[in-house]
Amino acid sequence: MADMTDSPLTRDGKSIVLAHDHGLEHGPTAFSAVPDRLNPEKVFEMATHDAVTAFAVQKGLAKQYYPSYEDSVNLLAKCNGSSSLRSGEPFSPQTWSVDHADDLGADAIGYTVYPGTNTEHEMFKDFYKVQEAAEDHDLPVAMWSYPRGQPIKEHRNPDAIAYATRIGLELGADFVKVKYPRSGAAMGHAVDAAGPCNVLLSGGSKSDDLTFLSMVETAIDAGASGLAVGRNVWQHEDPMSLLDALEKVVFEEQTAADALGREAIEHGSTA
Amino acid sequence: MADMTDSPLTRDGKSIVLAHDHGLEHGPTAFSAVPDRLNPEKVFEMATHDAVTAFAVQKGLAKQYYPSYEDSVNLLAKCNGSSSLRSGEPFSPQTWSVDHADDLGADAIGYTVYPGTNTEHEMFKDFYKVQEAAEDHDLPVAMWSYPRGQPIKEHRNPDAIAYATRIGLELGADFVKVKYPRSGAAMGHAVDAAGPCNVLLSGGSKSDDLTFLSMVETAIDAGASGLAVGRNVWQHEDPMSLLDALEKVVFEEQTAADALGREAIEHGSTA
Amino acid sequence: MADMTDSPLTRDGKSIVLAHDHGLEHGPTAFSAVPDRLNPEKVFEMATHDAVTAFAVQKGLAKQYYPSYEDSVNLLAKCNGSSSLRSGEPFSPQTWSVDHADDLGADAIGYTVYPGTNTEHEMFKDFYKVQEAAEDHDLPVAMWSYPRGQPIKEHRNPDAIAYATRIGLELGADFVKVKYPRSGAAMGHAVDAAGPCNVLLSGGSKSDDLTFLSMVETAIDAGASGLAVGRNVWQHEDPMSLLDALEKVVFEEQTAADALGREAIEHGSTA
Amino acid sequence: MADMTDSPLTRDGKSIVLAHDHGLEHGPTAFSAVPDRLNPEKVFEMATHDAVTAFAVQKGLAKQYYPSYEDSVNLLAKCNGSSSLRSGEPFSPQTWSVDHADDLGADAIGYTVYPGTNTEHEMFKDFYKVQEAAEDHDLPVAMWSYPRGQPIKEHRNPDAIAYATRIGLELGADFVKVKYPRSGAAMGHAVDAAGPCNVLLSGGSKSDDLTFLSMVETAIDAGASGLAVGRNVWQHEDPMSLLDALEKVVFEEQTAADALGREAIEHGSTA
Amino acid sequence: MADMTDSPLTRDGKSIVLAHDHGLEHGPTAFSAVPDRLNPEKVFEMATHDAVTAFAVQKGLAKQYYPSYEDSVNLLAKCNGSSSLRSGEPFSPQTWSVDHADDLGADAIGYTVYPGTNTEHEMFKDFYKVQEAAEDHDLPVAMWSYPRGQPIKEHRNPDAIAYATRIGLELGADFVKVKYPRSGAAMGHAVDAAGPCNVLLSGGSKSDDLTFLSMVETAIDAGASGLAVGRNVWQHEDPMSLLDALEKVVFEEQTAADALGREAIEHGSTA
């Protein structure tokens, strides 16, 4: 069993990946409430927070900024992506070779697959080549595993999420990032399905701090190795304080309420 | 004629392949009745049973667990696969290169084709490259040969199964795994059609022990070299005892009833 | 002009290719009247007959049996093929690389194209790479040239067959195998259209001996270099006697009737 | 952050790219009002004007004329393109390898993508290979980033243009060329979205001098690094005088009116 | 500017390419009025006429006959082609690699593109690889540039033909072969649009000598570098005399009437 404890993506077996590929996936409208964060430097600065074990960006951001941050930030090279301008079933083409990511100092590789779509087979095929190239460079691989397509009625349903984490394990990913399956029990099942493959909770769209941190706390309690968080951090009015709180929940086993210095909420309300 | 007698997949010319790619092909719901087997280690342990000549898994399971089992288990690297989340005609993309499978210590290569589908030609083309790469690495190849597609009215009909085994022979497979064509005579015909290519019965979904073992006995009597069994073993309440019985039927030429210490059933009832 | 007189496929400029790729193209039902021939060894034995200048099989049959026959049989490696389980327009994907065929001792390469189909361009492209690889290995190439597709009303019409042989010449084949265009005059025209590319009559489905041999005699008289025969030989009750007769017609310029020791039939009746 | 200040495409951080790929993209009808410019030599002469930092052409024009101009013109090799004869969604296939462009003395690489189309993924994939090949040759890359496709209601709307520049940044372009988003504020937002990736205004179809130069002035004021201009120059009755004026606006920070020695117009009227 | 004056395809800057790929493109029915010409040797003999600067054939004809003619004929290797058996939009797949054409002694490469079709982008992509391979072998490239597809109402209209020649120039062809755009003025415009890329008139289907030669005379007067002629020569009852006349019109600047020893016809009647 590969030991990811010493991986650049983990600390004591836990991970907080700050993800910032939204400029490609969602476009600049994602920044309308926090216009200063349109400047990637602001988000690179957030990635220097102690809590962050790796920073996930596309090639262009890495190329432009990572040389200034390579001592303070671990780079998770997100090697495929697509824009939201396109309609139809999701498909994420490769945008970065593992060779070039490695040249730039990447510590790990990230790749999205959409199981259940009509082009699942193309993404599985693309993934295996990227995963093997990463293996040849001794780089761990994180799969963004998002079931989609007509047959999937509801992409957060527990069975779909457990299938998603299992696909990560079966296809050789070291980390697998999935949406929250709506309960700690479902998350626990998804973690079991992944075996030794580390499960990362996908932060999703911006919600209030306690709701978000309670979801993280529940996921960690259920066995998740951590999370990949994007908008909940960089769309936050005070990103560093939220990262402080995340650090407490993920690495120090505090409750969400304690980490925020507030009263707890019911798990049932984390949708 | 290639002599597979000394192949790591056979013992005295017979094989019991334990297959465990269901996490990818069927998803975690396949484990709902036996939740502890969601842990691949439990199934790897079953593969150490003397009866098992090879264990068929996807890249990820092999990568995570095989290093601990390489002395006790022969690895059949299943190099393509797909999820059941996708609808439409089946197609199984490559998920593992022969090079990387060999690096991990694979003893043989497994690959699925679906003759009769609209993408039969793509799978034949993918198969020939994998088969030749395996040949270059001196690794035998097992084809999962499953006729599908609109023109095939019933995928277990004897003519379809005999065609399936012949395709294995014609395209250069050393082993060909097919569904049970509903009678020993039909199985015998399929074995004849395969020439020296070893025919493996596909265990299929879980059935009661005597029904299952009687089907195996019939297939062996008809000339099959053995079977690839998955759910009938790892979904079993006592997998090791079923493997004991399988060993008796396949390697010691006992009847199913004798192997189980029970009364025989009629062959006609093995559907 | 390439001189194929000394080619392993010809003797005194004439060829009798025994073709046996029916296990893939037609499936085991092709053997229902002659079940013992389901065993490829029986057909390999026929290929040792003096009349046979080359034996055309897929990779798997060659791999399993050719090592025992390499001193007595010339191997024509059929490097693409498809099953009849698939419906829709015919397309024949590559199933064997020229490199691997050469490693196994192939004396020539065979490849099917279906001019007129929607994927004609893919087969032309695949063919050119195979043809050039064969040239690099000093192996002659035989094209199975079978016009198909919606615009072709009748695939045995004389213009279609003459076009088929010309495509063989134009694309660089050394031999071109076509269906019988229903008359000696039409065959003569097809031979003229092929220039120095050797035209082989495709034997087609089983017919009575005199009808079949008269068709061969007519084709030879019209300038064909010989034939590729499959079912008329290996589905025959006495294959060796038919090969004796074929030898007389093709190599010794006897009439079909003389070769069979019978009375001639009218050419007009060879449909 | 890559410093493009010393790039052959910039002078003091500013660029005027003269683009002349209209012979391929629009065809000779683009020259009907200025028939002498159908001769590429006339346009190459314009490219020798001091104002021009690089000249963007397809392979053929570069091959035929660039050897005579390599001392006086910087070459931006436009490595993909398509004709306007084709209907349907735009797609721009590769027409020139980076290797061959480099052999001919290219100083930079240009490549078009159409985000939002059904083949966005193919262009992203093609782009990443071209961008990495350019990086391997130490050549900067300019992306022509033009959102298109059914979901995009209006391809000059400010959000689409800001998304377009961000895609340039995210995918690793050094320069990104976009249409004018109808106001300086929108251009400023697009420039912000691009981070350190230089934004070039796309000159678009021919308009009157003051309107055109006012748009350029507004874009430069908004932070654009310059422009890529084609028809406004080479369809002009006096191209050299317009280049004089462009030089003043882009490099000498003059107003459009001053540069032309005329009265200013309202920005609101630059459509 | 590449100087094609010394190219094997030109003499004093002029070319008469004898084209003979009709066996593939049109099939043997093209020979029905001149059955002896079905023998490629007869047409190879025509190619030895002094007037002919190059002979354009597919791989197979070159392979079979060129070794006997390499001292007397310049070979233009036509490296793609398709049959007229297929319906639907035209697409011409590669049939010959530049490497193999060069091995056989090719003096130049010919390649067809159909701008305006739905697969224009595939042909542009294929063309660029062939063009660059030819450049690497120091072989000039002739593009057959034939606008087609739904949006093109009439494929001989002057704008389409001028676009066709410009595409030749833009994509790096040394020669571009187009249909006659119905007038000398239109031809002159097409020649201007091609810049230094040599324009070759496509002879088209068989017409009477004076009509044909007058069209050639007009094209030459309009600046065409020559023509590629097929059926007007090899379907002619006296091909050598027509080549005599062509030589006078193309290389000796005689009128069509003078070359034939007849009275001139009005240009307006050359349709």
Characterization of this structure:
5 copies of one chain form a homopentamer. Chain A has a single domain (15-267), classed as Aldolase class I (TIM Barrel, Alpha-Beta Barrel), CATH 3.20.20.70. Chain A contains 11 helices and 8 strands. In chain A, strands 1-2-3-4-5-6-7-8 form an 8-stranded parallel β-barrel, surrounded by 7 helices. Chain A is α/β, with parallel strands linked by helices and 271 residues long. Chain A has helices at residues 22-25, 40-47, 59-69, 98-103, 120-136, 158-170, 184-194, 209-221, 231-234, 239-251, 256-260; strands at residues 15-19, 54-57, 75-78, 108-113, 141-145, 175-178, 198-202, 226-229. Chains in contact: A-B, A-D, B-C, C-E, D-E. Chains A and B meet through α5, α6 and α7 of A and α3 of B.
